[in-house]
HpcH/HpaI aldolase/citrate lyase domain-containing protein (Phyllobacterium myrsinacearum), 266 residues
Amino acid sequence: MTITAGFAASVRAPGPVFGTWMGTPHPIIAETISQTGLDFVIADGEHGAVSPHALLEILPAADRYSMPIVYRVAYNRPEYIRAAFDSGVAGVLVPMVNSAEQAAAAVAAAKYPPHGSRGMGAWRASNYYQDGANYIVRADDETVVILQVETVEAVRNVNAIAAVPGIDVLYLGPGDLALSQGVEPGLLHPSLLESYKTVVSAARQNGIKTGIDVASIEFMKEYASIGIELFSFRSDHFYILDGGRRAASQMRDCFQESVDSRSIQI
């Protein structure tokens, strides 16, 4: 089973899927973050520095450790979605989908006819056209389409959005949804929780998963209890800062303990 097919199967099966973010467009970051034991990595092309061209280096590095890469495109535009899939990503994350029409446009860009309008040219995804014919047959089933629900408008239209064929995950964006509702981002506000429940209900009725970006690990219990099953948490930037700060603190503490110990002995 290919990396993309395995990821698609895990997303469509019951049960949790855990991932993280990558905002630094470098193969060394991709190679190291792919060894975390997580289920997927989102390479961020909207609020991160990962351009479509950066996928050319990131994907081979992640492939070494069989890590599925989901690419968040900058905009819901077919050229971004098609280019990502042609490069060989396991899925796309499409931001700011606010209506069924916008959802249908994203799905169409991701799927080959008759289910969409994706064109010929899956250069890397088809192993440089060596597997072209077979790839076209498999691609729609082996790639994942994740749409972000992150505004009041999107929640209001979520039943129509979720009913669009070809969506695998409705992915909640807590930060932007909080701003859209006029509440403070980063908190588990009651109005946000009600919106999450609305999205989960619409997703369930259409046999698809709900995902969310986790601001605090403590929120996961609440999210799991309402039926969310796909999670992303933190990013490469966080791991570097958090690990570096803890190392600095530990070194200083250890040194000070040594100084204090010598002072006592004297």
Observations:
- The mean pLDDT is 96.
- The first strand starts at residue 17 and ends at 22.
